[in-house]
Amino acid sequence: MTDSRFKGVIFDLDGTIIRSEIDLPGMKRRMIRVLEANDIPPGLLTPNQTTVDILIKAEEIWRENDKPENEIEEIHKVIEEIMNHAELTAIPMINEVEGATKTLIKLKMKGLRLAVLTRSHRAYAVEVLKKIGAYEHFDLILGRGETPRPKPYPEALQHTAKLLGLSLREVCFVGDHQIDASAASNAGCLFIGVRTGPRGDDSWTRGEPEILLDSIRDLPDLLEKL
Fold this sequence. Notes:
- Helix 1 packs antiparallel against helix 3 (about 70-90).
- The protein has helices at about 25-35, 50-65, 70-90, 100-110, 120-130, 155-165, 180-185, 220-225; strands spanning about 10, 20, 95, 115, 140, 170-175, 190-195, 210-215.
- The protein is about 45% helix and about 10% strand.
- A 6-stranded parallel β-sheet has the order 5-4-1-6-7-8, with helices on both faces.
């Protein structure tokens, strides 16, 4: 392994390693219908919001109105089924970001530990990584519900690094969206952005990250320079 502070790389999945064909607008419309049928005022939530923002807002309203925890839990189960169905249905249409698997091989040859941290279901993550021939290159795969709190909360990356046996200073996080950048910032971890997300440069609602690559194909060379 090269002499470097980095001993591991944590990756987002959709838009970073793979090009996703999940029908996100349709999925979010179905989620919103369920939420509006359960005490969320109509028109407050829109498909233009991220799933994170949709669920956070719903939680806030339920807490403000003292909605029973058992009812909230049941609604979450329905929402989870909606997301799972949308993700698993999209698997046949998934393709890798060009050069992604070759990049992962290069990083493993350098002795780096690799992880996936995604808000998608673990079963979906495993299946799409197997589909593109990349599953075997990862030391760790964490999906929805497998960290104390999800991205963009700091616990997501803290937990991932801990399971890798590394400190946050010894890893970098690679992603295609503002949620990923915020997660890294909140955890005090170096963030590397990529332009391969479905929204391209429009992903960065708080301005482009300091390090922004065209794709993860450029990552091995960048890590050498860092």
